[in-house]
Design brief:
It is built from 16 helices and nine strands. It has 401 residues and is an alpha+beta fold.
Length: 401
């Protein structure tokens, strides 16, 4: 394992406003090596790039507004897992081109070179040293290739659970704290490395099936058979793991147990059906019918579990969704407040959390309300409002001209 005593913590920032040239980012990070070439940022680009971490793992952010950036990134010593919250990135590999847009995380393996072009991106990422990742993999008993460590992308069934992003949200305050060094930081780095190894399939493993594929199969089996309340042994058999192996993967990757994951998925399905309620008659009995359909036979335990997960009674969910249906001609006050906030701040870089805070509701609940009432996500609504504002501004400019 890497000696934490010599694994120095650092915090760096590069910004156009500080007089940094865009190429300084790569030269400073890689000690002037030629791994990055032809890098450029147009004169109208405003950027800020931050690095926090140590030699094993760093968290990175890039905010680039206005212009375009590009260059060639060669073979390097670290793997990069990142996701965009804004903008568009094109990555041109030797055998393929990938367009990355806001949403699921993307992994760029250390041994793969590529040319990139980006426009107005906001980027969050994790850079993890190949040597450190291999050490963690060997400690877990993974079968790793002798040659380059190459990763495939997450399957959608895992990507929508966002295990890495949730873990970074949990560990973030400690990871950016310069007082957290040595063995403590190495332990946090290992937790992130384990989630990367568990959720991104490793190529070139012969007949060995990556844990990421087994986790995908386990989640898919739960989603397909949730109403039947399958036993842990059934889930384990469906994905080719022992029961102990299944428990371990769920604990370290999803911070859950298979049984808890199954119960929460069943509760989520109940909620989805209640949010699609189509009449007000018999609210209580309809809740009971939906609950039984998803295997909840004890009304008291079901109501308690539902309140614990969603912060309200199931009957409240159903009544609220009915009162806010589009054919009723009115939207819930939380959605109205959210839309008003988006309209007031359309020119800003809004996040789902910003909009949810303004509406006074959790992000997941806000997404459910928007889907039910408007047929779109809050971020899609924000993009539409921003686009309309930009068109209006352009029209006004043309009229003045």
């Amino acid at each position: 394992m890497t000696d934490p005593a010599t694994n120095g913590f650092r915090r760096q920032r590069f910004a156009d406003g500080d007089g940094s040239d865009y190429s300084d980012i790569f030269e400073a990070e890689y000690h002037g090596s030629d791994f990055a070439s032809e890098t450029f940022a147009t004169d109208d680009t405003r950027y800020e790039y931050t690095v926090v971490g140590d030699d094993d793992l760093t968290l990175r952010t890039m905010r680039a507004e206005g212009g375009r950036r590009g260059g060639v990134i060669g073979v390097r010593d670290d793997h990069v897992v990142f996701w965009l919250t804004k903008g568009r990135l094109e990555m041109h590999f030797a055998d393929r081109t990938r367009v990355v847009e806001p949403g699921s995380p993307y992994i760029a393996s250390a041994s793969e070179a590529y040319r990139f072009e980006s426009d107005g991106t906001v980027y969050n990422g994790v850079h993890i040293a190949d040597s450190f990742l291999r050490t963690v993999g060997r400690d877990l008993g993974y079968r790793l290739p002798d040659g380059p460590l190459l990763f495939d992308q997450q399957d959608d069934v895992i990507a929508r659970r966002e295990p890495l992003r949730h873990l970074i949200g949990e560990l973030g305050p400690a990871l950016v704290d310069d007082r957290v060094v040595g063995p403590m930081r190495t332990a946090l780095n290992r937790r992130l490395a384990i989630v990367i190894l568990d959720t991104f399939p490793i190529r070139n493993r012969g007949d060995d099936v990556p844990v990421a594929n087994r986790l995908r199969d386990a989640i898919r089996y739960v989603e397909q058979h949730a109403a039947e309340r399958p036993a842990v042994s059934d889930i384990a058999a469906a994905c080719g793991l022992s029961q102990r192996g299944l428990q371990d993967v769920f604990a370290r990757t999803l911070d859950s147990t298979p049984n808890r994951f199954l119960r929460e998925h069943r509760l989520d399905r109940v909620r989805s059906e209640l949010l699609l309620a189509d009449d007000l008659a018999g609210v209580a009995s309809s809740v009971a019918v939906v609950a039984r359909r998803w295997g909840f036979t004890n009304p008291g335990r079901f109501a308690s579990a539902y309140r614990e997960r969603f912060g309200e009674d199931p009957a409240t969910t159903r009544r609220a969704s009915l009162s806010a249906r589009p054919d009723g001609g009115r939207a819930s006050w939380r959605v109205r407040r959210a839309v008003a906030y988006i309209e007031q701040h359309a020119a800003e870089d809004l996040s789902l959390q910003d909009i949810a805070d303004a509406a006074g509701v959790l992000p997941r609940r806000l997404q459910q309300l928007f889907r039910a009432e408007r047929g779109q996500s809050p971020m899609a609504c924000a993009r539409a409002i921003r686009a309309a504002a930009e068109r209006n501004a352009a029209d006004g400019t043309r009229e003045i001209a």
